[in-house]
Design a protein that fits this description.
This protein has a six-stranded antiparallel beta sheet with strand order 1-2-3-4-5-6. The protein has about 150 residues and is of the alpha+beta class. The chain is built from four helices and six strands. Strand 4 and strand 5 form a beta hairpin.
Length: about 150
């Protein structure tokens, strides 16, 4: 496989005021999820594994939800849902959540984490780089990859 980060803790703010946080490796224990989105009325934990899919926490304890992957899409595969999203967007002359600019925005967050490691400091978005910081650091010997236990 390809080298990936061994640990990252990243935080960012969207234009609408929602904050995002991603944690991997040992840092994942900080938020007990893969992605956390924090808004004014609570937060959402997203799990990218096969355990619980999404946990929605409100500032009102009576208004919290735990949604498993099966409850989010009991009869459909991810491919089915992706196709349905694109078809609906075309039919309603709208925009699909799967459009390329959303994928690029998410990728920029990942690259910002790598760039922060390279600079050994905070970075601002949008990024002003022309390369892959992770690849550059691996090629320069600036990182010492270590396998995850069990691999």
């Amino acid at each position: 496989g390809t080298h990936n980060e061994n640990q990252i803790l990243a935080c960012w703010e969207y234009d609408n005021g929602v904050y995002g946080m991603a944690a991997t490796g040992p840092a994942a224990d900080v938020v007990d999820s893969d992605w956390r989105l924090v808004g004014t009325d609570g937060f959402i934990d997203v799990h990218l594994t096969d355990r619980l899919g999404v946990q929605v926490y409100s500032t009102d304890p009576e208004d919290c939800e735990e949604l498993t992957f099966d409850s989010l899409a009991p009869e459909a595969s991810c491919i089915d849902l992706a196709i349905a999203d694109v078809v609906q967007a075309v039919a309603e002359d709208g925009e699909s959540e799967l459009r390329a600019d959303n994928a690029l925005d998410a990728t920029e967050i990942i690259f910002a984490g790598y760039e922060s490691v390279r600079r050994r400091g905070r970075v601002e978005l949008p990024l002003d780089i022309d390369d892959n910081p992770l690849e550059s650091m691996v090629e320069a010997g600036a990182l010492s990859p270590s396998p995850v236990d069990g691999d």
